[in-house]
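Task 17 of the worksheet. Students: predict the tertiary structure of the chain below and write it out as C-alpha cells. Keep your answer in the requested format; marks are given for formatting as well as content.
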Amino acid sequence: MIDVLPIVAAGILTAGAAYATARYYPLVEERLERAGVHPRAFVTRLTSTSEEKDDDEAIEFEAEELSETAAACLATLNAQVKTAFDEDNSDHVDLLKACWHHLQPSVPYPGRNTRDWGRLGFQGADPVTDLRGMGILGLKTLAYIAQYRQDLVERILRPSDDTYFYFFAIAGINMASSVHHLLNSAPALVNQFYSEDKDIDLANNLFSELVADTWLQFDVLFLQETQAFLRQGHPPALVIMQFERIRATFHQQLHQRWAQLLTTDRARDALQPLREQSVHQ
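Model answer:
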C-alpha cells in the first residue's frame, strides 16, 4: 500500500522552455485557453517555486558521521549530479535510448533532437536540456524506472488529454532532485539506506527505488487533491495548474516524514522493501 505523503520537488523548468512545452501539447493549451487561462499564466505557476526559498530549513536532522559505505554511495550520487550528458559517451547515449525504448516500445528511437520527446514529458526537442539540474543521475533514474518500474509508468505516463495529466519526465527529474536533497540533509538516513558493502554497486538502484516510491506517493496525493479541486466546481482544464500548488508542501513533508521515522527507529523497516526490490534488478 502506498503511504500517502505530500512532498515538493525542486523546480527545474525555465519559463521559456516550460512555455514551449505547454504549447507543444496542443490539447493542454486548448484546455487552458477554454478556461480563460493563457499558457504563460500556467508557466508562471509551474516555475514559481524555483524562485522561492526552501521551506525545509526548519527541519533539522541530527548530525551523524557517515559510514565508509554510506559516504562512498553518497559521493557517487553527488558526482553524477555534477556530470553533464556527453553525446560522445556511449553509456550516456544508451541511457537515453533505454528511456525511449522502455517508454515507447512500439516506436523506433527518433534520435536526440526531435519534438517526439514531448511524448515522454520532456519540455523541448532536446531532452538533454532537462537534465541540467540533476546531471546524469537524473537520466539514470529515469532509465531505471522506465525499465524496472512499469507499475509506475503505467500509472503516471498519462496521455495529454487525460484530466490528471502532468509532464512525466520533468516530474521524474524533480522527484530525483527532491530525494537527492533529502539524502544530503539526513546523514542518519544515508547510513541506514546504504548499510552494506554491496550497496556501493547498488547505489543507483537503491536511489532510483526511493525516487519511485516517493513519486508514487506524490501521484496519490496529486489525484486526491485534484479530485477535491474538481468537486469544488473548478473546470478540468485547470487541473494541470494545480501541480505546483500540490507540490508546494511536498518537499517539506518528505523531510518531516523521514525525520519522524528516524527518531522512532522505523526508518530501516520503511527502507527494507526498497532494498529488496533493488537487489532483484
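Marker's comment: Residues 1-24, 39-56 have pLDDT under 50 and may be disordered. The chain is about 60% helix and 0% strand.
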